[in-house]
Design brief:
Layout: H1 5-22, H2 26-42, H3 45-51, H4 57-68, H5 73-84, H6 91-105, E1 108-115, H7 121-134, E2 139-146, E3 154-158, E4 161-164, H8 167-181
Parallel strand pairs: 1-2
Antiparallel strand pairs: 1-3, 3-4
């Protein structure tokens, strides 16, 4: 029975994380994975070369050696393993799995700050730092979504936690209190 793309990503992402941890190279491998994710995002055709049956294994290995330049030995070994087992197309999902494990290990969370107006990078960092302190995390990396319907304030969504500090939510609470008094 063939494994699903998600199962492959989970197995290989976990294996890469464990390998990097055993080799005391977690931060190095994480940096390399970020670099690879950015390269794949900018040039998605990179993955096509490694799955295209027109190219033989020697040609694919040559192409991989070009990509591997400057990457750590651990990542080079891992990429060669993916090539050998024909799982290169799953690399973006494997990177996501690895990053999830890395972030959990490092007490780093990602989330979204929903606001009525766009927040700048400094404001996002301040919100993230405040949230991290409150929940005993090392770091919280936030992205911003604009939703004018919340009127003002911010809704923070980090992991399974939602903190609704929007004006709309406060007005709804006041409205509910007024209705309950009548």
């Amino acid at each position: 029975m063939a494994l699903s793309k998600a199962e492959i990503a989970a197995r290989y992402g976990t294996a890469l994380f464990d390998y990097a941890e055993d080799m005391a190279a977690l931060d190095t491998v994480h940096a390399d994975m970020q670099e690879l994710a950015e390269a794949i995002s900018n040039y998605p055709q990179i993955l096509q070369v490694f799955s295209d049956p027109i190219f033989n294994s020697t040609e694919k290995a040559k192409s991989l050696s070009v990509i591997e330049q400057g990457l750590s030995e651990e990542v080079q070994n891992f990429l060669n393993l993916l090539l050998d087992y024909d799982h290169f197309m799953e690399l973006p999902d494997i990177i996501n799995c690895f990053n999830d494990l890395y972030n959990k290990n490092q007490k780093i969370e990602t989330g979204v700050a929903v606001s009525a107006v766009a927040l700048d990078q400094r404001q996002l960092q301040e919100l993230g730092t405040s949230y991290a302190r409150k929940f005993n995390l090392r770091k919280v990396i936030l992205t911003n979504e604009v939703d004018q319907s919340i009127i003002g304030g911010v809704i923070l969504k980090v992991g399974d936690c939602v903190i609704d500090g929007s004006v709309k939510n406060k007005l709804n609470k006041i409205r509910a209190q007024l209705i309950n008094k009548n």
